Amino acid sequence: MRHTLYPWERAVRFDRGVLVGEVEPGEHKFPRHVVLHRVDLRPRSLTPAAQDVPTADGVLVRVTVVVRWVVSSATAFVVASAGPEAELYTAVQLALRGAVITRVHSAVDPERDAIAAEVLAAVGPRAAELGISVSEVAVRDVVMPGELRRAALAELVAASEGRAALERARGETAALRSLLNAARLAEEHPALLELRALQAASTVVVDRPARR
Predict the structure, then answer these.
(1) Residues 6 or more apart whose Cβ sits within 8 Å of residue 29
(2) β-strand 132-143 against 51-54: which pairing, if any?
(3) Cα separation of 67 and 90, whole Å?
(4) How distant, in Å, are the alpha carbons of 22, 73, 83, 89 from that of 130?
(5) CA-to-CA distance for 123 and 93, rounded, in angstroms?
(6) Distance (Å, rounded) from C-alpha 59 to C-alpha 144?
(7) Is 56 within 8 Å of 108 (Cβ atoms)?
(8) Are 57 and 45 in contact (CB under 8 A)?
């Protein structure tokens, strides 16, 4: 039988159930008793479902990661497990849980990079057994419980209202200080009041009827 393998493929060859080796890209002709298991070597992404992980202080935090991986050994990918992608999925979930559970909830979001590095280091050995090389792990989402999100929003609103109240108080204080200074000047220099009265008396606005 003829088989054509594309540049991004490798095939694991079995002769009558016996592992023989890997077949490179190109056109090949084998007897009928030869079985080829094709493996795609192009990079792939894995995004496990978000999971609620308890933190060190007992808060359930929902975390999502993205994993970039590629098949590094076609033979191991075919032979080591019946479902290597499912095995990788489970390994990532367990590693993520282990990285988050040691932190308090307030440290999870700021330490995304550290968590991703821990997951990558924890997943690497099991991935290698499966013929997989994990090139990157990134924490995509960190979602706190609704109660904490509402509390954080209320804290922001309170802080904003506090700043506004402080600015109003500063304005009122400045106005009172100005009045106090004016009263002090009037007390020390009574002539200023007479001068102010003369200025007010001399400023007269007369409304004249419009000419027809």
Answers:
(1) 1, 2, 3
(2) unpaired
(3) 12
(4) 16, 8, 9, 12
(5) 9
(6) 8
(7) no
(8) no
Q: pTM for this one?
A: 0.69
Look at strands 132-143 and 60-71 and give their pairing: antiparallel
How far is Cα 135 from Cα 182, in angstroms, rounded to an integer? 73
**DSSP assignment of 24-49:** -SEEEE--TTEEEEEEE-S-EEE-PP
pLDDT in tens, the chain (212 residues): 899 999 999 999 999 999 999 999 999 999 999 999 999 999 999 999 888 888 898 888 889 999 999 999 999 999 999 999 999 999 999 999 999 999 998 899 999 999 999 999 999 999 999 999 999 999 999 888 656 545 545 555 556 666 666 777 777 777 767 767 767 766 666 665 566 666 666 655 444 555 54
Task: Give me the residues paired with residue 63 across strands.
Answer: 51, 142
- Cβ atoms 69, 46 nearer than 8 A: yes
Report the C-alpha gap between 19 and 36 in whole angstroms: 10
Helical H segments across the chain, by residue range: 74-79, 84-100, 105-108, 112-129, 146-188, 191-202
Give per-residue burial for 120-153: e unless 16+ CB within 10 Å, then b. bebbbebbeebbbebeebebeebbbeeeeeeeee
Structure tokens at 130: 């499966």
